[in-house]
Amino acid sequence: MSNYIPPFEINNNMLSLVSDIMEKIGRLDNSLSLDKNPRLRKQNRINSIHSSLAIENNNLSYEQVVDVINDKLVMGPQKEIQEVKNAYNAYEMLTELNPYSLDDLKKVHGVMTFLTVKESGEFRKGSEGVFDGDKCIFICPPADRVKSLMEDLFNWMKENKDNIHPLILSSIFHYEFVFIHPFSDGNGRTARLWQNIILYNWKRIFEYLPIESRIHKYQEEYYNVIAKSHINGNSNEFIEFMLKMINETLDEVSNTVPDIVDNTTININKLLDVMEINKPMTSKELMDKLNIKTKETLRSGYLDPAINAGYIKLTIPDKPTSKNQMYYKVNK
């Protein structure tokens, strides 16, 4: 077994940022706001895709990215259009992938770079470097070491996923992945998506948080902290940068959903007011009590958030769509 340990040190600033992030996640989790707003979820997903590709010099506008995703005709370089299609397909896989599986990582890279990279889904076979104009500022590890370095990284993550906070562990992964530079192309896009996959497996809310948009806004700093981490021989500055990006993304998302949070709470309270503890009611009875016209409105606006919050239970939990389904309020 390898003795590989990525060089980093957890400091007070990191812990303070983690605390802030946890508090904001708690508020958004309690509101269920992203769960109840498909429009906002889709908008955030498109922001992630557009921003992550823009960081890698894809010049399609946000509106063009939307059109590509919606299968509309877009005038632009075919490679950049294909990159959007690939990124959309890769992000759609986010909930299905094991963040600690190297095979899954190669699979998603294959999707991310389909028809645009010769060695799609395969580790690079040649030498790579990072350039600032014509100047090489960093030489990546030799190709013959990539496989073992990636195996060491994934083994380290598996061994430490319960010991190191996911916010920090995912940031360490992001930096180490960029340092190893395992693919001939598509490394940045894959690293950013994979950090989201690690975080999603910790908290579902990360499925739709557009962290990439924040990184794009601070793109120069993003590259600078990567370069500084290379020089310093540890990922400390990069970890702090990524925690800052996540923290600010949560601020931005929170500012877009205050009305949704209030409406969700109001609807739950309305539903609870017309129900009695442990007395089952049908959908029709609830719709009549609440003066609601459609079952979809009842389900999405009232029942689902109340069920998710633990206030309402189903009489037939194994068959949620049963025609005989009823709902009852619990003493919470």
Strand and helix layout:
Elements: H1 12-31, H2 38-55, H3 62-69, H4 78-92, H5 102-112, E1 129-132, E2 135-139, H6 143-160, H7 166-180, H8 187-200, H9 211-217, H10 219-232, H11 236-256, H12 258-273, H13 283-290, H14 295-308, E3 312-314, E4 327-329
Antiparallel strand pairs: 1-2, 3-4
Helix pairs in contact: 1-11, 2-4, 2-9, 4-5, 5-8, 6-7, 7-8, 7-11, 9-10, 9-11, 10-11, 12-14
What does this structure look like?
- 35% of the residues are buried.
- The chain has 332 residues and is mostly helical.
- The model has no long low-confidence stretch (mean pLDDT 91).
- The protein has two domains: 12-256, Fic-like fold (Orthogonal Bundle); 258-329, Orthogonal Bundle (Arc Repressor Mutant, subunit A), CATH 1.10.10.
- The protein has helices spanning 12-31, 38-55, 62-69, 78-92, 102-112, 143-160, 166-180, 187-200, 211-217, 219-232, 236-256, 258-273, 283-290, 295-308; strands at residues 129-132, 135-139, 312-314, 327-329.
